[in-house]
Amino acid sequence: MKAVMKFGGRCVEDGAMIRRSAKVVRDYVTKGWKIVAVVSAMAGVTDSLLESLNRAEKGDMEHVFKFIEKLKVRHADALKEAVKDPSIKREVEEELEKEEKELERLLAVVAYLREVTPRTRDYALSFGERLSTRIFWGSLRDQGLKSTYLTGWEAGIVTDDCFGSARPIMALTSRLLRERLLPLLEEDIVPTVTGFIAATSDGIVTTLGRGGSDYTATIIGAALKVDEVVVWKDVDGVMTADPKLVPEARTIPIMSYEEVTELAYFGAKVMHPLALDPAMKEGIPLRVKNIYKPSEKGTLITKVESEGVVKAVTMIKDAAIVTVSGASMVEAPTINVEVLRSLSEVGVQAIMVSQGSSQASISLAIPRAMLDKAVKSIKRRLGGEGYRIEYEDDACVIAVIGAGMKGTPGVAARVFGAVAEENVNIRMIAQGSSELNISFVVKESDGMKALKALHREFGLSES
Ligand code: ADP
Ligand code: ASP
Ligand code: MG
What is the pLDDT of residues 396-445, one digit of tens each? Predict the structure, then answer.
């Protein structure tokens, strides 16, 4: 049996957790499994790399040195705890030192030039995974396993050059992954691969988007046609809501690929939205499990007919609404196209689109950070008069998800009824054509009320 196992940031947040995760791999290998390990950066490291890039861009050299110092201490401490064998430890130490020097040089150059390009950003972000995965590799060997360390690109993941959210060139990637990883598995070696990062065919480092280690795992899983991709987290599985927001949330035992894709798209951080795609194409089951409870089943994601109407509720905070209205009925279709085009020109992806035909208006929910860019671009493209652009910057998007909604009458009435009972005003509504979701926008300060009301309404808190 073959599996890819992905260890998220919390599973490698310190030396003790790395050791715990490495033991999980060892237990599976002992039972006869062949494992590829995919590793995220230690919790918080990618965020701190981003922050240090921002500071470096402002020329703050002092921050760069302080940051590198902290990063060194954190990884050295983790190594001490995760690897006991002195010679393995020394070997990892040397590798960490090389990586840390390279990162320090890079950040110093950024601080000197006061400029960060998307390409430099991806290069800098790659160090989070490069450091954590080195320690993980040492820890596996410390547990008596054979292991080879590989960056995403050394493993064979080749992407386009869309820095920040690069996409794999699948045919080539799959072939390379098979050529490079299968021989290792044959020899009972655990390939230990950095999640999140890859490279273009010219060898330029790219990242797969935030949370991209999930995606790395399923890309590899699909290429090697493994029996299962196991995603280890600090939660019991995919839950009826984010347990940090709704403490009564429960674990969902089984879900379809499509349902989890919708959930991820509508903001549930539990999975990268594209990660389901390679697994779905090859029909490979995914399991989301809690690293603290390895014997529990977690959530199985596979091809299933769904039971239950609504399975989960989710929320995207920090959203904004832009409405363009007032065009005449004749102009409306072209205006709508122009609005969407003007957003795509500046790289703004709408979370929701809702179109009113009688009054000729189009409303879009977008990430709040993109509001300024979006409004400017729409104004630029539409030019002068004849329509109005309005925006609200205090919105959040709520979505209810479940394949069982399809063809079930009255779900929307229950959704909006439950929200109305809380006296929450709905500002925009959309339903995915797949009928897997109903999504709507409310004022950010009403978001939690609406989320909790829906969780109750659909009985998600009850076992
Ligand atoms: P990792 O580093 O392992 O990828 P993430 O932090 O990216 O972990 O994802 C796990 C987090 O996702 C959980 O801690 C939880 O707060 C959040 N989350 C949001 N929605 C859900 C959900 N529906 N089910 C489970 N977790 C969720
Ligand atoms: N370290 C990356 C991030 O924080 C990728 C991941 O954790 O999946 O986005
Ligand atoms: Mg994640």
Answer: 999 999 988 887 888 889 999 999 999 999 999 987 777 889 999 999 99
Tell whether 100 and 11 lie within a shared domain.
yes
Residues 47 and 151 in one domain: yes
Which of these three, 215, 233, 251, is where a domain ends?
A: 233
Dist. CA 259 → ligand 1 center (Å): 15
Same domain, yes or no: 334 and 422: yes
Q: What are 121-169's pLDDT values in tens digits?
A: 999 999 999 999 999 999 999 999 999 999 999 999 999 999 999 999 9
Residue 258 maps to a domain: no
Residue where a domain terminates, one of 170, 203, 233: 233
Complete edge-to-edge strand list for the sheet that includes strand 361-367: 352-356, 361-367, 312-325, 388-401, 437-443, 426-431
Ligand 2, CB within 6 Å, residue ranges: 9, 40-41, 46, 128, 195-196, 210-214
Both 326 and 208 in a single domain?
Answer: no
Residues 121 and 211 in one domain: yes
pLDDT digits (tens, 9 = 90+) for 280-315: 999 999 999 999 999 999 999 999 876 778 999 999
Q: Is residue 338 assigned to a domain?
A: yes
Domain residues for the domain of 356 are 312-457
- Look at residue 463 and tell me if it is in a domain: no
d(C-alpha 297, C-alpha 290), whole Å: 9
Residue given tokens 């795992």 in the structure block:
217
3-state helix vs strand vs coil in the chain, percent to 5: 45, 25, 30
Residue written as tokens 């979701």?
437
Ligand 1 lining (C-beta closer than 6 Å): 8-10, 40, 211, 233-235, 238-239, 241-244, 263, 268-270, 312
Ligand nearest to C-alpha 266: 1
Mutate-to-test residue for ligand 1 from 233, 238, 315, 454, highest number of ligand atoms within 8 A of CB: 233
Whole-prediction pTM value? 0.93
Q: Which residues have C-beta under 5 Å from ligand 3, the single-atom ion?
A: 211
C-alpha–C-alpha distance, residues 292 and 278, integer Å: 27
